Amino acid sequence: PRKKEKLGVALVGLGYYSTDLLAPALQLTEHCELRGIVTGSPEKIPVWQAKYGIKDHNVYNYENMHKVADNDEIDVIYIVLPNALHKKYSVIAANAGKHVWCEKPMAVNAQECREIIEACKKNNVQLTIGYRMQHEPVTQKIISWAKQKPYGNIKTLYAEAGFYHGANDPTHWKINKELGGGAMFDMGVYPLNGVRYATGLEPLSVSAVIENSRPDVIATDETTLFNLEFPDGITAECKTTFAANINTLQVNADNGGYKLQPFQSYRGVAGITSDGKKLEAFKGNQQARQMDDDALAIINGKPPLVAGEEGLKDIKVVDAIFESARQGGKRIT
Ligand code: NDP
What we know:
14 strands; globular
C-alpha cells in the first residue's frame, strides 16, 4: 500500500492536556495530524469539530470507540484519560488494530502495564508512552552524558517535581484514588524517569515514605519521598508533592555535575553545569516533537523512542514505592 503522508491521530479524553497542549501541537506536526476525537462530553464535540475540522465519522464516545477498527482515517489512538482508565482504553484501541500512544503514567500498576503491552503485541501495533522529556534536546544531552560521563562517574542524584494542588475541586480525579490520582502518579514519575534516564541504569532497590499535610482535602498521596539504589553504589533521592512548586534534576559526579531546573517544564528545560556551561533551552514545541518522532517510528516501522516497556519499568518501581511506604519505609529490592 501507498505510504500515507500523515498519520491520523484520535485523541481520547478532551481535558486539559488534549485541549491546551496536544491539539495545538498537532497543528504543528509534520508526520501526523488531528483527525478524530473520543469523548464522553457531547458538548465538546461541536467545539472541537468547528476548531479542528473533525469529520462526523471521526467522532466517537467511550462506548463505540471500538468501531474505529473500521476507520482507515485513524491510525493512532492517543489515550489522554485519568490514569486508572489508561489500561482499559489502550486495550480497546489495540484490539481495534490502531497504534497506541498512552499518556504517563502508563497505568496504575505493573500488571495493567503488562496487559497493555500484551494487547499491542497481539495486534501488531506500536505502543509508546507520553514521556515527552525523552524527546527534548537538552534532556537528550543529559541522557547521552550517562554514557559519555563528561564529569566522571555519577555518584548521587537529586530529583523533585511537584506543584501546589489547591484541591479547589474535591471531586477532581487527580486527588481521587479510584481514578489513579495522587502526586506520585501525576508528578512522581518525572523524577523517577529522570534519575533512570540520567544514569541509564535500573534501580536495584527503593525505600519510600508518604506524608500528607492535608488529609481532609487530598485523598491520595500528597508528598512522597523515595530513594533509589542503583548499581555501582549510585544513589538517588527523589521527591514528589502536591504541596509545593518544585522542579529539579541534579546529577553529581566525581568531577562536578549538572543541574536542570526546571527539568520538565513545557516552556523549556534550563540547565547549568558545575563549570558554568549553560544548557540552552529547546524553544520548540515538545509535544509536536514527541508526536512526530512517534509517528515516524510507525511510518518507518522502527521501534519507538519510548516503548511500553519503559512505562512498565517506572510503574514497577512505583508499585515498590507504595509497598515500601505501606511497610514504613522498608527497603524493597
Ligand atoms: P483532565 O481531567 O483535564 O482531562 C481528562 C479527560 O478525560 C476529561 O476531560 C474527560 O474528557 C475524560 N474522562 C473520561 N472519564 C473521566 C472521569 N471519570 N473523570 C474525569 N475525566 C474523565 O486531565 P489531564 O488532561 O490533565 O490529564 C489526562 C492524562 O494526561 C493523565 O494521564 C495525565 O497524567 C496526562 N498528562 C500528561 C502531561 C504530560 O506532560 N505528558 C501533562 C498533563 C497531563 P471527555 O470529557 O472528553 O470525556
